[in-house]
Predict the 3D structure of the following.
Amino acid sequence: MNTLTSLAASIDGQRFWDDMLEQAKIGALTPRGLRRLALDDNDNKARCWLVDQGRALGCEAFYDAMGNIFLRREGQDPDLPPLLIGSHLDSQPSAGSYDGTLGVLAGLAVLRALQANGIAHRRPIEVVSWTNEEGARFAPGASGSSWFAGQREAASILAAEDDDGVSFADALARCLERLDAHQVNYRPDPFTPFAFLELHIEQGPVLESLGVPACAVQGIQGVNWYSVTVQGQANHAGTTPEHARRDAFTGAHALITALREAVAEHGESVRFTIGKFALEPNATNTIPQRATFSIDLRHPSAAVLAALDETFQRLGAKQWSGCTVELKASSRVPPVEFDSQLVEMLNASVKAYAPDAPQLVSGAFHDAIHLAHRCPTAMLFMPCRDGISHHPDEHIERDDAEIAVRALADTAGTLLGR
Ligand code: HGY
Ligand code: MN
Ligand code: MN
């Protein structure tokens, strides 16, 4: 008779991997990779697929006011706050098939094991897929989880627009209509879970270099996002002499050079990325009047992030090559340490499979960075090939994934009995 203590052994590895392959088809790119931008048609299809799997297992499916999806398997004591397991189904524009999906389908694998083996559990369990973790279409990321955890107001999230001028509010309305039509129950408000567990690919090289299939994650570094506009003056590229120019690209270049110099003072541990850059009117023979770009700034120390934030604001208040600047922080998310007891439990579950597993701090943010402010939260990592992620070449080994899911299930089994 299978019980919670054998939940790890009850995981059906083949079914889990079939689910991964199935989900990878929704938004698949050729020859490989995935494009499933938050609230686009593929994201909505992936949500409905998840709801159908949960329903087939006897779970009740819910969505909340931010479109987060929950699959609930009732516990013997339905009044107890549920254990939450999950991650996200949305992806970067040209992504791999594992970032986010792994964590949602790991939760589904736990539901499948509970159902297939008739395992009773005191506490309810809910598998969650958070809306817009990536922030690739609507910045900043982790909209669904930050709102659920009370870290961000709905208004600022709903007002975000994508590059085509579509608002998050409009895209969300279409998504909620779709879920309504799919007979998913509306449960608008956030609640306080008993705990939240998230399995994710490491998106770095450490576990693969150690030959370790999984490890516990002790925290996540902080991350600030900025949007910058450099305003110059358009004019003729051939007739306008240098001294009469207010070239927005030259201004942006000078500002970015100064920003990079400020970042360099904090050594190798800072991550500074300009992932989006646009010029207007974007014509070969017209001096650009406007440059807009994004900044993604990360560091494990809140103090270093605060110091750089101050420097960025100071540099953004100056003129550069005669251009004015608007430098706005769209998101400041402090570093988090996960619940030490949960981390210990995950550590113990992992050590059964990988005695020399390390504990890592995550360079990438995850929905867990916000859930950590709402309930005891912790993560597991598994390796990905060459540490590559946010790229179609993102790849994981099935055996590693199965071990990671079993380790997650082991800790989940303990928590479901409490
Ligand atoms: O950007 C991140 O760290 C996450 O992968 N969305
Ligand atoms: Mn992710
Ligand atoms: Mn990601």
